[in-house]
C-alpha cells in the first residue's frame, strides 16, 4: 500500500498482507461481498453502538513495523484503538475517515516521488495506467450477460480478485 501526502510528492509505502489489500480494494472498488468481511463487521458494530470513526493516525515505525491507531468518538468521548495500519486503512475507507501520519514516521519512511506527468488527483495512478495499457483482460471474448454471471459467481465464491478483473472489463466496455 502506498499512501500519498496531500499537496506534496511524498509517498509512504507500507507492506501489507494480501487479505488486507483485498479488503481495501473491495471497498474502494464498491464491490459488495455476499458475506461481510471483518472490516465490515467493525463498521456494523460501530454503527450499532453509535461509534464514529473520526480518523486514523499512523503513529510510529519501529524495526520496520508500522503502528497506528483508529480514533473513534462516542458521546463526546474519544477512544484510540491500537491497530495495524492495513486494518486501520481498511476501516478508514469504510467510514470515509481521514488518514494521518505523524511527521517523524513520514520523514523516516516517506519517499519523494517526482513525476511531472502524474495527475495530482489520481488515487491509484499505477492501476489506471496498467489497465489502460492492457489490451486484453482475459475476459474480452465474453458477452456482457456471461460477464455479469461470472461476476456473480466470483462474488459468491468470494474470489474478489477475479471479481475485480471482471468488473474492470465491464467498466472498460461501458466507457
UniProtKB/TrEMBL annotation:
SUPFAM superfamilies: Hypothetical protein TM0160 (SSF103256). Residues 141-175 form the UVR domain. This is BFN domain-containing protein. Residues 116-140 are annotated as: Disordered. Coiled coil: none annotated. Residues 1-113 form the BFN domain. GO terms for molecular function: nuclease activity. InterPro entries: BFN_sf, Bi_nuclease_dom, UVR_dom. Pfam families: BFN_dom, UVR. PROSITE patterns: BFN (PS51658), UVR (PS50151).
Amino acid at each position: 500500500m502506498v499512501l500519498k501526502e496531500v499537496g506534496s510528492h511524498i509517498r509512504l509505502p507500507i507492506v501489507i498482507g494480501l487479505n488486507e489489500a483485498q479488503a481495501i480494494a473491495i471497498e474502494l472498488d464498491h464491490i459488495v461481498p455476499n458475506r461481510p468481511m471483518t472490516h465490515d463487521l467493525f463498521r456494523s458494530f460501530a454503527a450499532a453502538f453509535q461509534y464514529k470513526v473520526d480518523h486514523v493516525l499512523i503513529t510510529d515505525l519501529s524495526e520496520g513495523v508500522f503502528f497506528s491507531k483508529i480514533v473513534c468518538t462516542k458521546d463526546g468521548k474519544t477512544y484510540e484503538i491500537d491497530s495495524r495500519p492495513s486494518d486501520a486503512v481498511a476501516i478508514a475507507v469504510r467510514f470515509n475517515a481521514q488518514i494521518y501520519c505523524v511527521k517523524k514516521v513520514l520523514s523516516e519512511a516517506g519517499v519523494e516521488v517526482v513525476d511531472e506527468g502524474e495527475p495530482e488527483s489520481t488515487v491509484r495512478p499505477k492501476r489506471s495506467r496498467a489497465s489502460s495499457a492492457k489490451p486484453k483482460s482475459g475476459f474480452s471474448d465474453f458477452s456482457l450477460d456471461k460477464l455479469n454471471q461470472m461476476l456473480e459467481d466470483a462474488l459468491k465464491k468470494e474470489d474478489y480478485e477475479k471479481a475485480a478483473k471482471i468488473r474492470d472489463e465491464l467498466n472498460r466496455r461501458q466507457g
